[in-house]
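Quick one, tokens below:
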């Protein structure tokens, strides 16, 4: 008898499959619902003002019902919109410009923050940063990997941070795995960092036990 092996599957592996077989929208709706409920529960119980980010796939974002789905989950969960940070990729910003702007304006108008995820890996024009109402840029992990040893990556990250600051955007670095990387980013003026150096993905119960205390 073979033993069933259960392990974590990274998003980069299961998302393309979910898109291919047509279930990414359902998964996305479930994740958004859970995030709204957790944000409401955490901030209420711990008397905090904690923001939770949720990744939205290009297919999910471009769904004609996306705004209705967001509004429904906010209303049903009772979450305060400012506790939500919706992360979209550069790919999501490509397409019907008028439709994209309309969605982003609505999200911003109700208090939801917008982040561009994996910035630097797409092929869209930088002009969309000026046109679209976003709050944060998340620098893609491949650039962070080489920030200590590759001068090209260092200069790219430095330029992205300078450009973001000139547009009054906050900058987050993804995939930070060492103190050295963290210190370099701090020196460049990066606002926030995330990665295995600070903590790996973990169940909510473990997060509560490790990082949160009831007020």
């Amino acid at each position: 008898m073979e033993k069933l092996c259960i392990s974590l599957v990274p998003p980069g592996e299961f998302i393309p499959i979910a898109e291919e077989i047509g279930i990414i929208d359902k998964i996305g709706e479930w994740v958004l619902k859970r995030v709204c409920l957790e944000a409401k529960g955490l901030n209420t119980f711990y008397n905090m003002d904690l923001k939770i980010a949720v990744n939205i796939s290009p297919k999910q974002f471009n769904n004609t019902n996306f705004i209705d789905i967001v509004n429904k989950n906010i209303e049903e969960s009772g979450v305060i919109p400012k506790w939500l940070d919706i992360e979209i990729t550069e790919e999501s910003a490509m397409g019907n410009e008028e439709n994209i702007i309309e969605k982003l304006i609505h999200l911003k108008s109700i208090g939801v923050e917008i982040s561009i995820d994996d910035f630097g890996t797409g092929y869209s024009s930088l002009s969309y940063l000026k046109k679209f109402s976003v709050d944060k840029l998340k620098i893609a992990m491949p650039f962070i990997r080489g920030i200590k040893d590759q001068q090209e990556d260092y200069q790219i990250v430095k330029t992205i941070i300078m450009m973001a600051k000139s547009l009054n955007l906050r900058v987050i670095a993804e995939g930070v795995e060492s103190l050295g990387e963290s210190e370099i980013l701090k020196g460049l003026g990066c606002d926030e960092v995330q990665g295995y150096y600070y903590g790996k993905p973990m169940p909510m119960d473990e997060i509560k036990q490790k990082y949160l205390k009831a007020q």
